[in-house]
Amino acid sequence: MAAPLDIDQLRTFIAIIDSGSFTRAASEVNKTQSAVSMQMRRLEERIDRELFRKDGRINRLTSDGERLLAFARRMVRLNNETLAAFDEEALAGTIRLGTPDDYADRYMPDIIARFAKTNPNVELSIVCEPSRDLVEKLARNELDIALVTHNPKVRHSQMLRTEPLFWVTSMAHSVHQETPVPLAVGRCNCDWRQVGCAALDSVGRDYAILFTSWSSTVIASAVLAGLAVSLLPESALRPGMRILTTQDGYPELPPAEIGMIRRPGVPTALMDALTDHIAASLDNLAPSGADDEADGSLPNRAGVSRAPNGLMFPSW
């Protein structure tokens, strides 16, 4: 009878794919990089298939690796669910998380995946609203945790992540050269809208707000269609967008800062479990287009890279 697959090896294999590199996977599974490499060699020997193929300094997933990935996720998930079913101390209950729409688009997939893997008996309820509305919901005990734009002037939050904030336009259009500049931004109490308008005012650049929405999808669509200029954090940049700089007449912006607020009174174990996953996910999040080849990474699966001139283009 054939020996069963090693769940730990499969878990490491999944970590490599999800994190994008052997180095980050080693940190995630608490192993050395050499131990991770050894696990992958043993897994390849066990199934008698090549899972990764070197392409220069990049490790690319083979077709057999793609096939194994689907099975590996199912096996690890079933293993976790089985253990949780017999763990009398496993966390259970419901926790309510609030996040702005633009954060949900980029950050939530990894947070949800991490949390669900280790806490299958916890129901995660997610609300997408602007930061200011989320703070009000916390005060009314309608939320337990909120991801918000960190702004010490208007709210107290634990800062989790800082990344550059950019002016963006469409790569295929020249709307950024118009006067006044048409803008696509959040509603009047949006922190980034206020930052952007103040920056343009400081250099005397005329602008007109043509599109207003809390939806990051709507804002990005207006930019990509060549209808407006907007401002986005580095992780939210999409293929087809161009970063505008001072050479284009757009002032530098302060960094985007993401904070977290916890509501007092939530069971500590449940709260800590989610906040730990949030912090780990945001800490490991690579910018769109980040070139991570030096440590043997997989190519950026978001399909976006940054060119030297600030243009964004598909990488593969």
Polypeptide structure, described:
With 316 residues, the protein is α/β, with parallel strands linked by helices. Helices cover 39% and strands 22% of the residues. It folds into 3 domains: 7-87, Winged helix-like DNA-binding domain superfamily/Winged helix DNA-binding domain (Arc Repressor Mutant, subunit A, Orthogonal Bundle), CATH 1.10.10; 93-162 and 257-284, 3-Layer(aba) Sandwich (D-Maltodextrin-Binding Protein, domain 2), CATH 3.40.190; 163-255 and 305-313, D-Maltodextrin-Binding Protein, domain 2 (3-Layer(aba) Sandwich), CATH 3.40.190. The chain has a 5-stranded mixed beta sheet, sandwiched between helices. Strands 10-7-11 form a 3-stranded antiparallel beta sheet. It has a two-stranded antiparallel sheet with strand order 1-2. A hairpin with a 5-residue loop joins β13 (305-306) and β14. α1 (7-19) crosses α4 (63-85). It starts with 6 loop residues before the first helix and ends with a strand.
Task: Summarize the structure in short.
This protein has three domains: 7-87, Winged helix-like DNA-binding domain superfamily/Winged helix DNA-binding domain (Arc Repressor Mutant, subunit A), CATH 1.10.10; 93-162 and 257-284, Periplasmic binding protein-like II (D-Maltodextrin-Binding Protein, domain 2), CATH 3.40.190; 163-255 and 305-313, Periplasmic binding protein-like II (D-Maltodextrin-Binding Protein, domain 2).
